[in-house]
């Protein structure tokens, strides 16, 4: 069963992140793409965040929609990301997708790895 979650539910897909994903999908000219957010083992703090585009949605993926684009998260990653906010920022240090994760007890300086 596919679960569709509104942006007010267990994860937040910000307007800024959705707008960036939408523009990247338009550049790729493939309306079937979704932003996949995932967790992998490794990084200086134990776990690392990952982002990729995916055309497929698994039956047990959580889906969060904003501005007509989907962010999908697999069940294993979702348990570490529940309550998180996926945002996109542009600043002096460059442009990046960023995860604000309330479950992380420590994070590395680059912000791309964490521990629970």
From TrEMBL:
One of its GO terms (biological process) is iron-sulfur cluster assembly. Coiled coil: none annotated. Keywords: Iron, Iron-sulfur, Metal-binding. One of its GO terms (molecular function) is iron ion binding. Binds 1 iron-sulfur cluster per subunit. Iron-sulfur cluster binds at residues 44, 108, 110. It comes from the Bacteria. Its cofactor is iron-sulfur cluster. Required for insertion of 4Fe-4S clusters for at least IspG. Homodimer. Belongs to the HesB/IscA family. This is Iron-sulfur cluster insertion protein ErpA. It comes from Neptunomonas concharum. The gene is erpA.
């Amino acid at each position: 069963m596919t679960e569709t979650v509104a942006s007010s539910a267990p994860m937040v897909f910000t307007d800024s992140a959705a707008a960036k994903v939408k523009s990247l999908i338009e550049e790729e000219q493939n309306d079937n793409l979704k932003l996949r957010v995932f967790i992998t083992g490794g990084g200086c703090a134990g776990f690392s965040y990952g982002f990729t585009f995916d055309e497929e949605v698994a039956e047990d993926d959580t889906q969060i929609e904003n501005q007509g684009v989907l962010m999908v998260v697999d069940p294993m990653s979702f348990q570490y990301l529940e309550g998180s906010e996926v945002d996109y920022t542009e600043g002096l240090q460059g442009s990046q997708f960023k995860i604000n994760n309330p479950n992380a007890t420590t994070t590395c300086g680059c912000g791309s790895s964490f521990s629970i």
